């Protein structure tokens, strides 16, 4: 049986069972048959889930970039690897072939070497969504340096603390960045950040906006000039399967960000395998993921997963609203995109706008739609299905995390019957379990609990940079010997999983455990509502009660607020039950969101509780100004 290409639901169940009965045989076969190794492993898996000591493909020797690029050159040299779609729609798109990508990566790898970068060194990448960003990741991996990408929307202090945490030696950045109608002074932010970063020796600057910037003598160099003199050939470094590939910071709910460490062999096998199956990828497809490479979604499903499969991947510099709200649909039409992967927050934002933005474009190339980042509410799911997928393209709702490296639970298009708001079934090799408060595994269906994974998978993070104990404490201690995701989930009668939100988003109202996602889902179905966020606050009688923050659609119609509140509660009553009715409803002009589009419920919870003391770091929010408004209009 070909494990690499799941062909039917029957296949899926067979392969899944195999992967659980004999994980080593399963992953060993996939790794062996689909990748180039300099040397095979001694053992497929060695693990200790108590101390979080996990090794996949021990002593295997490999270079992930050889697998992403070089091995495709014979068959796919002229094929487009990356389509670059610039922020400005009037700037021509670029088609970068596998051959050209090879040359550009080799050149940048040689530049890194000349600038003193060696195997194991950390390189910070702070670049906008331009081809050099993808090339920079690959150049690092080619020379065996560990990349640490920091999303280019983060502030100088966020950048500085991430550089310090992993003692980076070099920064790759650009003069500036375009974002919709704005341009951002990236180099200035880097200069500010570096005031406190003694380990940085060099800054290599890519030209993008041609803006005036300061270049510090001896430290800062123009990438273009260095590339001109760089050789086109580069012999890739031979790496161990368990050598780190990258560090990517993910915010903890408290404390400093965690530098999640992913290693080469397992991450390679897992991202390639999941990409192939979850997006039903076929040779001539044009795949587009709208995430930023600054997030795990971009690492795994713009760069590594697609390139490992020899795919064509779109890299989009812009934003969904520029020059107008039709931009996504315009890009799909223009490049005849076959797989489109985006986030619920983007879908909800675009669903608020006039339908003509979608209808003016030909979306008939679309075969598969994907969603990631948050629970997708039912209304957004239907809007996506009806208007973008035209009811024929299956939606794959992909649940996963920075820590998991790749997608864990998701329907396989054309194979797994979808169910709105359900991520459905685990990928082969993934063994999810639901745990109750007494730390017992819930074995039946139709249960709700804390989502854990009880067996290692190749894509899992191996540690937190510089703090293995924090890794053990955060992920392997709450449920000893199991990986705890921090998310709650329910399993329905057929074994489908629905993510109900972070476990800390569960509110206990009069003794009932209420996940916030299903309540928000019900509210969002009200025709006047655009988005909502529910949190709990202490209540004398019920223990906790529910506070709702709601944004309304811009219909131009003025509605009586109290009436609307009543209607929303009636809606919740009939969809979930009177127990889930909201005690307080505040209409807001926006919800505080992280840069990757997740609603920051932590802040909303504090406001609901009337505690304005310590919001933590809000500078990394997309819209920090909204916090003040929400605070001022809080309902007492
Ligand atoms: C890939 C990514 C991880 C958290 C995760 C969960 C939420 C992601 C989801 C989803 C419901 C989905 N999440 N995908 N919740 N359905 N399809 O987003 O990684 O930024 O680390 O966030 O996002 O709460 O635990 P990351």
TrEMBL record:
User: InterPro entries in the record, alphabetically?
Assistant: Ac_CoA_lig, ACAS_N, AMP-bd_C, AMP-bd_C_sf, AMP-binding_CS, AMP-dep_synth/lig_dom, ANL_N_sf
Q: Name one Pfam family in it.
A: AMP-binding
Q: Where is the Acetyl-coenzyme A synthetase N-terminal domain?
A: 12-68
User: Which Enzyme Commission numbers does its entry carry?
Assistant: 6.2.1.1
UniProt keywords, alphabetically: Acetylation, ATP-binding, Ligase, Nucleotide-binding
Q: Which family does it belong to?
A: Belongs to the ATP-dependent AMP-binding enzyme family.
Name this protein carries in UniProt:
Acetate--CoA ligase
